[in-house]
C-alpha cells in the first residue's frame, strides 16, 4: 500500500522533487486519499519546488485527516504528534505567501507540539517562529511608516512591484529548464536581499531628514524569550547557557521536566537569574515604550 509513497521518499531524498511529487500524487490517487503522511510529504516536496499554494493545500488536507478517526478519537481530542510536521509545512507555505499572522499561529502550534512531545526540532521551529513574529512586526512597521510618509509608500510599492516581476521571470526560467532548483534558490535569495537593501536605504535616507518618527523600530533578538517569543522581564539562565522568561520556562518544566534546547532533565533548582539580561530588557523597555506591543 505504501510502495509508491516509499518510492517518492527515495526520490525526495535524492533531490528529485518533481519525480517525488508525481509519485506522491500517484499514491494519493491509487490508495492513499486518507493517508495524512502522503499529503504531508507532498506538501514538503512542493515547498522545495516553491509551489506555495500547492504546499498549503496539502498541509491543510493532512491536518484535516489527522483531526479525523482513526488518528483522533472524537471531538476535542488532541492531534497526534505526527501532525506537528503538517503544521510546520503549512506555516512555511503561508509565510511565503505573506499570510504572516496565520503562519505565526501555525508555527507556534508546531513549536508547542514539539516541546510537549520532546521532539528534537525545537530549535529549528523556534527560529521559524521568531522569523514569523519579526515579519509580523515589520508589516506593522511598514504600515506605520507609510502612513507617516506618502512618498515612502509610493517608492516601496514600486520596489515591491519590481521584485515581484523579477521573481516571476525567475520562476518562468525555472519552469522552462533554464535554471535548476539550486540556481533558482540562489538567484531568488540574491533578488530578495537586493530588494531588502534598497528598502533599508530608502528608510535610512528618510529618517536622516530630521524626522525621528521615521526611524524603523526593531527589538534585538537576544531580548526575546524563545518559548513565549515576548520580550523578557525576569530571565533565568539554564546550565546549557540559554536564557528564558522564568514563568514560561517553569510552565514548560512542569509539563516535561526537560531543557527546551538540550532535552536533558532540568529542575527549577538549576535555574539562576540572568541579572545582566534582565537589566538590558528593562532599559530597552524604558527607552522604547512601543516595544510592549511586540
Description:
The chain has 294 residues and is mostly helical. It folds into 3 domains: 3-119, Tetratricopeptide repeat domain (Serine Threonine Protein Phosphatase 5, Tetratricopeptide repeat); 139-206; 221-293, Herpes Virus-1, CATH 3.30.40.10. 64% of the residues lie in helices and 3% in strands. It is built from 11 helices and 3 strands. The protein has helices at 3-13, 17-30, 36-48, 52-66, 83-96, 100-117, 122-148, 150-175, 181-207, 246-256, 275-287, and strands at 235-237, 243-245, 272-273. Strands 2-1-3 form a 3-stranded antiparallel β-sheet. Helix 3 runs parallel beside helix 5. The protein is flat, with a radius of gyration of 22 Å. The termini are far apart. The mean pLDDT is 87. GO terms for molecular function: peptidyl-prolyl cis-trans isomerase activity; protein-folding chaperone binding; ubiquitin protein ligase activity. Residues 218-291 form the U-box domain. Keywords: Isomerase, Repeat, Rotamase, Transferase, Ubl conjugation pathway. InterPro entries: TPR-like_helical_dom_sf (IPR011990), Ubox_domain (IPR003613), Znf_RING/FYVE/PHD (IPR013083). One of its GO terms (cellular component) is cytoplasm.
What structural class is derived from the secondary structure elements? Answer: mainly alpha
Beta strand count: 3
**CATH third-tier fold name of the largest domain:** Serine Threonine Protein Phosphatase 5, Tetratricopeptide repeat
What fraction strand?
under 5%
With helices defined by DSSP (H or I, 4 residues minimum), what is the helix count?
Answer: 11
User: Domains counted in the coordinates: how many?
Assistant: 3
* Low-pLDDT regions: none
Q: On the 0-100 scale, what is the average pLDDT?
A: 87
Name of the CATH first level of the largest domain: Mainly Alpha
Shape type:
flat
Largest sheet strand order: 2-1-3
Q: In angstroms, what is the radius of gyration?
A: 22 Å
Tell me the span between the first and last alpha carbons: 48 Å
Return the CATH architecture of the largest domain: Alpha Horseshoe
H/E series? HHHHHHHHHEEHEH
Helix percent band: 55-70%
Amino acid at each position: 500500500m505504501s510502495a509508491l509513497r516509499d518510492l517518492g521518499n527515495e526520490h525526495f531524498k535524492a533531490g528529485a522533487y518533481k519525480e517525488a511529487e508525481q509519485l506522491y500524487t500517484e499514491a494519493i490517487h491509487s490508495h492513499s486519499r486518507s493517508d495524512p503522511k502522503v499529503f504531508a510529504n507532498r506538501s514538503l516536496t512542493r515547498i522545495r519546488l516553491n509551489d506555495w499554494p500547492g504546499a498549503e493545500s496539502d498541509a491543510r488536507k493532512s491536518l484535516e485527516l489527522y483531526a479525523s478517526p482513526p488518528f483522533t478519537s472524537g471531538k476535542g481530542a488532541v492531534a497526534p504528534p505526527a501532525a506537528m510536521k503538517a503544521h510546520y509545512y503549512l506555516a512555511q507555505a503561508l509565510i511565503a505567501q505573506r499570510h504572516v499572522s496565520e503562519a505565526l499561529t501555525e508555527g507556534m502550534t508546531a513549536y508547542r507540539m514539539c516541546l510537549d512531545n520532546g521532539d528534537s526540532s525545537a530549535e529549528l521551529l523556534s527560529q521559524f517562529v521568531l522569523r514569523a513574529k519579526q515579519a509580523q512586526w515589520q508589516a506593522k512597521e511598514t504600515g506605520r511608516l507609510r502612513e507617516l510618509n506618502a512618498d515612502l509608500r509610493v517608492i516601496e510599492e514600486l520596489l515591491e512591484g519590481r521584485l515581484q516581476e523579477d521573481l516571476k521571470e525567475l520562476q518562468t526560467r525555472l519552469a522552462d529548464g533554464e535554471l535548476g532548483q539550486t540556481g533558482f534558490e540562489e538567484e531568488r535569495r540574491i533578488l530578495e536581499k537586493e530588494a531588502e537593501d534598497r528598502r533599508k536605504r530608502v528608510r535610512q535616507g528618510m529618517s536622516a531628514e530630521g524626522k525621528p518618527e521615521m526611524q524603523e523600530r526593531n527589538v534585538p533578538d537576544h531580548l526575546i524569550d524563545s518559548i513565549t517569543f515576548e520580550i523578557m522581564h525576569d530571565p533565568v539562565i539554564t546550565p546549557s547557557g540559554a536564557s528564558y522568561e522564568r514563568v514560561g520556562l517553569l510552565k514548560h518544566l512542569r509539563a516535561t521536566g526537560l531543557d527546551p534546547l538540550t532535552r536533558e532533565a532540568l529542575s527549577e533548582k538549576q535555574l539562576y537569574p540572568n541579572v545582566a539580561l534582565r537589566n538590558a530588557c528593562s532599559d530597552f523597555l524604558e527607552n522604547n515604550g512601543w516595544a510592549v506591543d511586540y
